[in-house]
Specification:
By secondary structure, this protein is an alpha/beta fold. It folds into 2 domains: 16-101 and 161-233, Rossmann fold; 108-153, Helix Hairpins, CATH 1.10.287. The chain contains 8 helices and 8 strands. The chain has helices at residues 10-15, 47-66, 78-90, 108-111, 113-126, 135-152, 174-183, 211-232; strands spanning 20-23, 35-39, 42-45, 71-74, 94-96, 164-167, 187-191, 202-205. Helix 3 (78-90) links the parallel strand 4 and strand 5. It comes from Picea jezoensis. Belongs to the universal ribosomal protein uS2 family. It holds the Pfam family Ribosomal_S2. GO terms for molecular function: structural constituent of ribosome.
C-alpha cells in the first residue's frame, strides 16, 4: 500500500469534536491505547492516534479506488444517514443509510435481485404505468417502490459484493460489520471509546455520535477515494 501525505489538521478535528468519547463508565478497555485522558467523567480521544489511523485509511481507500474496486459506506444512525448518502453519492460509492437488512451481504444471491426489482418498478413509474392499474394496486406498487428506495436505493447499482466497507458506527452497525467479517471484506470503521478496535481492519478512534465528527471522517475518506479514481482515469 502506497504512503501519501494527507493533511490531518488536529485543530480542525478539535473543532469537529472528534476527540470527545463516551462517559468513562461505558468504555471498552481495548480502547485504552487510543485514549488521551478523561475530563468530567468523559474520555478524551488521542487525536494524534486518530490522524495516524485516518491517514492509513485514506492510503487504503486511495489504493483500492485506484484499482477500480467498489466501496460500500454504511451509516444508519440518524446523525450519519444524510451524511452517508451525500458523501457516497459524491464519491460514486454504494451505501446503506437506513435500516440494515440482515443477510444483505451474506445472502447476496437474494439481495442482488432486489435492486433489479427497484429499477423495474422505477421504470414503470417513470413511463406512467402506475396510472394504468386500479388505484389500490397502483398504491401498493408505489409503497413497494418507496420501501425499496428507502432501504436499497443506495445499492441499486451494486452488482457484486463490495471490496471494502466504511462503517460510521461499530455499535449501531454490528450486523453489517459481522457480515463483512464472515465474508472477509476489509473494513474501515469509526471506533468510539465504547468499541472493540480488534473487530475492524482499520479502526479510526473518533466521536461516532457527533455530526461534525462523522462528516470530517467521511469527507477525508471519500476525498481519498475520488483522488484514487481520478488518477486511475489518467
Amino acid at each position: 500500500m502506497s504512503k501519501r501525505y494527507w493533511n490531518m489538521d488536529l485543530e480542525e478535528m478539535m473543532e469537529a469534536r472528534v476527540h470527545l468519547g463516551h462517559k468513562t463508565r461505558k468504555w471498552n478497555p481495548k480502547m485504552a491505547p487510543y485514549i488521551f485522558t478523561e475530563r468530567k467523567d468523559t474520555h478524551i480521544i488521542n487525536l494524534a492516534k486518530t490522524a495516524r489511523s485516518l491517514s492509513e485509511a485514506c492510503d487504503l481507500a486511495f489504493d483500492i479506488a485506484g484499482r477500480g474496486k467498489q466501496f460500500l459506506i454504511v451509516g444508519t444512525k440518524y446523525q450519519a444517514a444524510d451524511l452517508v448518502a451525500s458523501a457516497a453519492t459524491e464519491a460514486r460509492c454504494h451505501y446503506v443509510n437506513r435500516k440494515w437488512l440482515g443477510g444483505m451481504l451474506t445472502n447476496w444471491s437474494t439481495t442482488e435481485t432486489r435492486p433489479q426489482k427497484f429499477k423495474d418498478l422505477k421504470k414503470e413509474q417513470d413511463t406512467g404505468r402506475f396510472n394504468r392499474p386500479p388505484k389500490k394496486e397502483a398504491a401498493m406498487l408505489k409503497r413497494q417502490l418507496d420501501q425499496l428506495q428507502k432501504y436499497l436505493g443506495g445499492i441499486r447499482y451494486m452488482t457484486s459484493l463490495p471490496d471494502i466497507a466504511i462503517i460510521t458506527n461499530q455499535q449501531e452497525e454490528s450486523i453489517a460489520l459481522g457480515e463483512c467479517r464472515i465474508l472477509g471484506i476489509p473494513t474501515i470503521c469509526l471506533v468510539d471509546t465504547d468499541c472493540d478496535p480488534d473487530l475492524v481492519d482499520i479502526p479510526i478512534p473518533a466521536n461516532d455520535d457527533g455530526i461534525a465528527s462523522i462528516q470530517l471522517i467521511l469527507n477525508r475518506s471519500t476525498s481519498a477515494i475520488c483522488e484514487g479514481r481520478s488518477l486511475r482515469s489518467l
